[in-house]
Amino acid sequence: MKRPNPNFEPTLIERALSYVAPQKAQIMLRDRLKFEATAVMGRGFGGYIGARRDRSATADWNPGGGSPAVDVLPDLPMLRDRSRDQMRNAPVALGALNTDVLHVVGTGLSYTPAIDAQRLGLTEEQAQDWMQNTKWRFKAWAESPDCDYRRQLDFYSLTELAYRAWKESGDSFVLTPIVSRNGEDALALQVIEADRVSNPRGQQQSDTLQDGIEMDADGVPIAVHISKNHPGDWRGTNEWERRELRGPKTGRRNVLHLFDMLRPGQVRGVPWIAPIIEPLKQLGKWSDAELNAAVVASIFVTFMEMDAEAFQDLYDDESAGRIINNAQKWSGNMESGKAVNLLPGEKANTQTPGRPNPEFDPFWNAMVRQIGMALGMPIEVLTMHFQSSYTAARGALLMAWRNFNQRRDKMAKLFCQPVLELWLSNEVSQGRIACPGFFADRAIRAAWCASMWTGDGPGSVDPLKEVTAAEKRVDMEISTLQAESILHDGQDWEAKHRQRTKEVALQKRDGTAPAAAPGTAPVNADPSVDPNADPNADPNAPADKTDDPANDQQDDNAAELQRRLRR
After folding, report:
1. Which among 523, 454, 446, 535 is positioned nearest to 494, based on CA atoms?
2. Strand pairing class (301-304; 338-341)
3. Widest CA span of the chain, in angstroms?
4. Among 24, 59, 152, 181, which is most buried by a count of CB atoms within 10 Å?
5. In terms of domains, do 196 and 119 share one?
6. H or E segment at 317?
7. For the segment 278-297, what is each residue's pLDDT rounded down to a tens digit?
8. Distance (Å, rounded) from C-alpha 16 to C-alpha 13?
């Protein structure tokens, strides 16, 4: 059924004008339709060949010029279903998603406070104490399943789930209720699949309701409508709940919406593999056909022909009837090592299928290379197969990591940072963390919430070369130890430094410290620190100077002076 064009319908102003000045309203409608028809028909007569209609290559190419809602919303249910089917059954699609999730989220994004002590009126010591305490409290909340509304996953697993659902379905939603856990009110996260956000009871799309997203008169999303049950569930009845995106008084984020906005005004996201669903499906069919052909070619079957005259002489009527019945029951399926009796007069014709196909691998690689281009993933990373030089392999990893870092940054902005702000707001309101001025000034609140989110590092192709390069960057002061530590494995340098300091002190105490090379200072040596000192001693205690040669000389001079005075 062809949809009516809304542009041909009178506008609200034209309908209102028709009651008081019908003739003028007709003229206004006619002029508007004439302008719109001219604009549509005039496409293709400018300077771009790609818009021409009088060329054979583009004569039948007439894509629609729909809005984001018209182009996206009608296709979303089928795109989601096909995307999930590919993620379940297509090795290339599943491998691409797993690789992306592994590098973007990995073992989880870690929170490191990065507040500005001067702006908040704190000393450096106070800021360090606050950041260590806050990081410790957030870590305790994030590593507990109590942060999950269903008490199944921790924060890092929820991050992976939300990101995977986002890429697989086009978008995902995260509810942020405050629930009572272990005797205190705490933040909990609930990941909602994209299908559950829909128009209640099949309502038609409108200017204020589009696929479960409710908007105000200015087109600003204000609420979502969430079904109690998944639309694909077996339950017959369903109910919808309206959730405001932000609290009307406090502006609190009640719902987080994770999706890639590809066009202005777009309200729902499309699955990550939507542009390549058809090539992926065709590639899967071809791979299956080649695999089946190779399997058939590997089967060894023996066909036994029977001479008609010998058949009549060798078997009586009962035995011959039994053989004929068995031969007629053969389904035609080939099984390796099977012996098939052919009836008198039958003959088996065999053909060599020519499998495996020598052109399969080059063409498959060519198709996967194009798929990788659409996903922003070089073929070496997509197939996890590196067979070129070190330079080529490193180049592929660097190109892939540009995309991974961009997606990681977006995940941190859309999910991790809002969750941190919600968690810290709750902790401050409950009196568990002190943040003066947190609720009084938005700028002060942003300063308290300043943070850095880090994930797993990219790994190393040649560790020696990369460590040498990192050392030179730090020596040239174009990088820092903190930046290089995060680039290496995503871990905070200060935590490593504290642990390394303990290890060096214990090695010196036990006499297992590595010997320094001749003519060089010991590694991690501090001239102000006594290597024989007790690592557990109080650093603020008065130093023992009895073994200092300078002090011994001073004592001798003082004794000599006393002897002269007594004389």
Report:
1. 454
2. parallel
3. 149
4. 181
5. yes
6. helix 317-329
7. 999 999 999 998 888 888 77
8. 5
Instruction: Answer yes or no: do 174 and 261 share one domain.
Output: yes
Considering the domain architecture, whether residues 52 and 101 belong to the same structural domain is answered as: no
Number of neighbours of residue 185 by Cβ within 10 angstroms: 12
Domain that holds residue 488: 459-513
Give a yes or no: residue 304 inside a domain. Answer: no
What the block records as the tokens of 30 is 């006619």
Burial label, 235 (beta-carbon count in 10 A; 0-12, 13-18, 19+)? exposed
Q: For the segment 83-107, what is each residue's pLDDT rounded down to a tens digit?
A: 999 999 999 999 999 999 999 999 9
Q: How many angstroms separate the Cα of 194 from the Cα of each of 212, 324, 407?
A: 10, 59, 19
Name the token pair of 500: 């390394």
Q: Looking at the structure, do residues 194 and 238 belong to the same domain, yes or no? A: yes
Q: Is residue 531 part of a domain?
A: no
| Residues 30 and 110 both lie in one domain | no
> Domain check: are 137 and 219 in the same one?
yes
Q: Are residues 16 and 145 in the same domain?
A: no
User: 148 is written with which tokens?
Assistant: 């999950």
Any idea what DSSP says for residue 416? I
Distances (CA, A) of 519 to 263, 306, 509: 64, 94, 23
The amino acid sitting at 216 is: D
**Exposed e or buried b for every residue in 24-40, given b needs 16+ CB within 10 A?**
ebeebbeeeeeeeeeee
Distance CA 168, CA 269 (A): 10
Contacts 24+ apart (CB under 8 A), 135-139: 135/111, 137/427, 137/432, 137/433, 138/111, 138/420, 138/423, 138/424, 139/111
Query: pLDDT of 320-356, one tens digit each?
Result: 666 667 666 665 566 665 666 666 666 666 656 566 7
Query: Facing residues of 181 across strands?
Result: 184
Is residue 90 a part of any domain in this protein? Answer: yes
In the block, tokens 């003229």 appear at 27
- Residue 46 in domain: yes
504 to 184, 507, 509, 516, 517: CA distances (angstroms): 42, 5, 9, 13, 17
pLDDT single digits (tens) 152-195: 999 999 999 999 999 999 999 999 999 998 889 999 999 999 99
